[in-house]
Amino acid sequence: MRILGEGVRLSDIEQHSMLIFVVFEYMQAQSQVKRIKSVTSSEVVFDLTNSVSAMQMQRLLVEPLRKQIPEYEWALDIKLRQLGAKRVETKKAKPSKSTGKKAA
I need a labelling partner for 39 at 20 to 30 A (CA). Which of 5, 12, 18, 51 fits? Predict the structure, then answer.
């Protein structure tokens, strides 16, 4: 069984290792073959080879992943049979500004 798709190297997936671990756990629970189709610095695309409906994939895979890993934006493409996870830029909380007034 091949986990890495054509052109995907271990060095490519290092920065997404925890994401891949969690997704593979969900895929195993849904009897999906675990395969990484492509990787960039901000995105991982997983191959979905088992035939299931879009609604089943949305409910059983995408929705739980959205809740568990909000740092990524999830996209399901049934025609291409793939699941994409793109890293979302998180906004840092701005420090509160003090009014500069002293209490009396």
Answer: 51
